[in-house]
């Protein structure tokens, strides 16, 4: 058996045309000019992408009649070193050991990809109060409102003083204080809910309050000054509820007990948020400040709201609140040119944009509201006053008071208690000069204050 010849084996196993061309392996051809049609199998031919036709370098090795043919064989190209273009890091950076600072940085490093993945991951579940229902996701207009108020930061007292509409905010707070003093205080004084916290009259607390739509707890200090015994606060925006709870916890020696819950009081019963023990004793006062109009998206929501107010309010108790003045808004809407396509009015402080000039139903007449440094274009709904009063009567709630904010000011600015309160709350200075400009004063007049009594 002949010795194994790798070159001969490669040639024998290479495809050739015609087949008789491989006969020379047994007896070399007499004429070296006969070309082989064998495909190139040489390493140089495989590595060098030269499209020009050439005879295989193998044939030069097989032909013994011309030793110079070996020198004429194509040379193998030299291998190119890895040298990519657009290099991000220096070529020798991999060989350098990382410093301690780099090791510390990369230990917790998150690049762009990790940041994108982190957004898709579920955030860790917060601590949940077992007595409270799980947070509910909201869609549509309700979702817009919830997202807006959850995103609003809870600024401190010093930062609130720098608000561009601090005069309007102070005036609105003064109106609420007047409303609470006139109608909530008598109901609290007649309450059977009393708590003794020590000696002296100031140490005793009386009355129970439901703050529906408590927001971030802006009225907690008002209830503290009213010396209530207990407050139940509820709002649809869970982040705002957490901030209200934190504000109560940070109060200097709170004089009243408080419970907080996130709940949509316009679609769900109050009993879903508070235990029967909490609701066992009825409320003396139910307060809804700047939020009741959201319930008038539909008759179902309005009735659910009134049911939550009336069911847990004792006979003789007070239901009070503040809402936009529908008559004022509709008058401004009607004053726009008949051919106007943009149904917007207001000034630099507030803007109101209606979607429709006319609405067939008493409910769902939507507009978008903007108030500088307070409300960023959220959907609200017209409260047709006469319709609201009629519905409230069906739930045993009867009107005692209704006034526009401007009229509240005119009636109470010379009052021996409420006049000096305006100075203390910085609505006016010691000389009686208002902190509001004309635009803020116009914005204040789009609201009314009301009070009902349950019979």
Automatic annotation (TrEMBL):
Residues 117-139 are annotated as: Disordered. The keyword rRNA-binding does not apply. Its EC number is 2.1.1.56. It is an enzyme of class 2 (transferase). Pfam families: mRNA_G-N7_MeTrfase. Keywords: Methyltransferase, mRNA capping, mRNA processing, RNA-binding, S-adenosyl-L-methionine, Transferase. CDD domains: AdoMet_MTases. It catalyses: a 5'-end (5'-triphosphoguanosine)-ribonucleoside in mRNA + S-adenosyl-L-methionine = a 5'-end (N(7)-methyl 5'-triphosphoguanosine)-ribonucleoside in mRNA + S-adenosyl-L-homocysteine. Residues 163-455 form the MRNA cap 0 methyltransferase domain. This is mRNA cap guanine-N(7) methyltransferase. SUPFAM superfamilies: S-adenosyl-L-methionine-dependent methyltransferases. One of its GO terms (molecular function) is mRNA 5'-cap (guanine-N7-)-methyltransferase activity. Responsible for methylating the 5'-cap structure of mRNAs. Gene3D superfamilies: Vaccinia Virus protein VP39. One of its GO terms (cellular component) is nucleus. It comes from the Eukaryota.
């Amino acid at each position: 058996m002949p010795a194994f010849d790798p070159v001969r084996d490669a040639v024998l196993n290479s495809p050739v045309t015609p087949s008789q061309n491989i006969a020379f392996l047994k007896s070399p051809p007499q004429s070296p000019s006969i070309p082989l049609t064998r495909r190139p199998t040489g390493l140089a031919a495989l590595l060098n992408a030269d499209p020009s036709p050439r005879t295989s370098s193998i044939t030069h090795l097989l032909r013994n009649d011309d030793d110079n043919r070996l020198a004429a064989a194509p040379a193998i190209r030299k291998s190119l070193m890895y040298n990519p273009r657009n290099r991000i890091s220096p070529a020798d950076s991999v060989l350098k050991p990382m410093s301690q600072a780099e090791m510390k940085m990369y230990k917790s490093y998150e690049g762009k990809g990790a940041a994108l993945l982190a957004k898709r991951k579920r955030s860790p579940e917060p601590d949940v109060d077992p007595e409270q229902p799980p947070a509910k996701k909201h869609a549509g207009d309700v979702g817009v409102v919830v997202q807006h108020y959850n995103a609003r930061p809870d600024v401190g007292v010093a930062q609130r003083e720098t608000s561009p509409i601090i005069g309007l905010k102070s005036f609105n707070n003064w109106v609420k204080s007047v409303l609470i003093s006139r109608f909530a205080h008598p109901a609290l004084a007649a309450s059977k809910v009393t708590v003794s916290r020590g000696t002296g009259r100031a140490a005793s607390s009386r009355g129970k309050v439901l703050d529906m739509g408590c927001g971030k707890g802006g009225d907690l200090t008002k209830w503290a000054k009213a010396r209530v015994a207990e407050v139940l606060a509820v709002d649809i925006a869970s982040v705002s509820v957490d901030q209200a709870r934190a504000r109560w916890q940070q109060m200097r020696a709170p004089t009243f007990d408080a419970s907080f819950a996130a709940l949509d009081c316009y679609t769900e019963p109050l009993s879903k948020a508070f235990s029967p023990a909490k609701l066992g004793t009825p409320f003396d006062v139910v307060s809804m400040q700047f939020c009741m109009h959201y319930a008038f998206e539909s008759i179902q929501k309005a009735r659910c709201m009134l049911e939550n107010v009336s069911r847990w309010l004792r006979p003789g108790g007070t239901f009070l609140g503040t809402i936009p003045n529908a008559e004022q808004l509709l008058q401004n809407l009607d004053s726009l040119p008949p051919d106007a396509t943009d149904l917007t009015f207001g000034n630099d402080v507030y803007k109101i944009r209606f979607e429709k000039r006319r609405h067939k139903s008493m409910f769902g007449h939507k507009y978008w509201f903007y108030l500088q440094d307070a409300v960023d274009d959220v959907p609200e709904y017209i409260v047709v006053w006469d319709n609201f009063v009629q519905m409230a009567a069906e739930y045993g709630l009867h009107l005692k008071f209704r006034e526009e904010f401007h009229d509240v000011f005119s009636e109470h600015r010379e009052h021996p208690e409420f006049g000096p309160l305006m100075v203390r709350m910085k609505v006016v200075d010691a000389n009686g000069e208002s902190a509001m400009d004309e635009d803020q004063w116009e914005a204040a007049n789009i609201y009314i204050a009301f009070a009902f009594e349950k019979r």
